């Protein structure tokens, strides 16, 4: 299945016009209309990448009572 994304603006009378889509005249197509949302650019896909991480007491034991030795 070929897919094609096109951005357009509704005219004042509510008509949607698509131009330059790569389908043949007379070919059946499915049209799904969604409001346009701005997508993140690939370089902004992970906005926290490179942000320093601060570990608070990383070697301090947690829940010492939960560590039992079974013998």
Describe this structure in words.
With 71 residues, the protein is largely without helices or strands. 0% of the residues lie in helices and 0% in strands. The termini are far apart. The mean pLDDT is 81.
Labels describing this entry:
71 residues, little secondary structure
Structural class: little secondary structure
Q: How many strands?
A: 0
Uncertain segments are: none
- Tell me what portion of residues adopts beta-strand conformation: under 5%
- The gyration radius over C-alpha positions equals 27 Å
Shape by Cα distribution: elongated
Q: Summarize the amount of helix as a percent range.
A: under 10%
How far is it from the N-terminal to the C-terminal residue, by CA? Answer: 63 Å
- Major beta-sheet overview: none
Number of helices: 0
In short:
With 71 residues, the chain is low in regular secondary structure.
Which SSEs are present, and which pair or pack?
Blueprint: no helix or strand
